[in-house]
Specification:
The protein contains 4 helices and 10 strands, in the order H-H-E-E-E-E-E-H-E-E-E-E-E-H. With 157 residues, it is α+β, with helices and mostly antiparallel strands. It has a single domain, classed as tt1808, chain A (Alpha-Beta Complex), CATH 3.90.1570. Strand 5, helix 3 and strand 6 form a beta-alpha-beta unit. It is globular, with a radius of gyration of 15 Å. The two termini are 28 Å apart.
Length: 157
């Protein structure tokens, strides 16, 4: 679909850029690694709608403490902030957009925010709006909030 004529229905509905093939692949890789490494300590959601004190967002991945899933009673939008959000930079998105979004997540109770830059295979792990550690695709990502160590070579393979 030609996005130069305006926003796609996906972008309009979610308020975020359309993900690419690489974006979708890496999103799946992070979900898989989190499930594997977290030893059932978390519940991870892809493209979950959040309504945090009247600020709406749809992170690529939202990580919550382990919770039961009730398939009979769904929720359209979560009001509780996740522990961590993972945002993957889309080809049509600016880094500044994601940095500003990370700041808003922290304002609304998120404890850590990972910003993934696909083209250079780096992950910025923010512990607050002004402090972060950069991990390359050859390193082990460490997030003290989740107590997770993730070999990024496994994610970017």
């Amino acid at each position: 679909m030609d996005t130069t004529l305006g926003l796609t229905p996906y972008e309009t509905e979610r308020g975020k850029p359309m993900p690419s093939r690489n974006h979708g692949y890496i999103q799946g890789q992070f979900l898989f690694q989190l499930k594997f490494l977290a030893k059932n300590r978390f519940t991870c959601f892809s493209e979950l709608s959040l309504d945090l004190a009247n600020w709406e967002s749809v992170p690529d991945i939202a990580v919550y403490p382990k919770m039961e899933i009730d398939f009979l009673h769904d929720e359209i939008s979560m009001k509780e902030p996740p522990l961590t959000v993972i945002e993957i930079l889309s080809p049509t998105q600016s880094l500044q957009e994601l940095v500003s979004k990370a700041e808003k997540y922290f304002e609304h109770g998120v404890k850590s925010c990972w910003l993934v830059l696909l083209s250079v295979r780096n992950v910025y792990v923010f512990s607050n709006p002004t402090e972060y550690v950069v991990f390359t695709h050859k390193e082990v990502l460490k997030d003290p909030v989740l107590s997770v160590e993730m070999p990024l070579g496994e994610v970017f393979s």
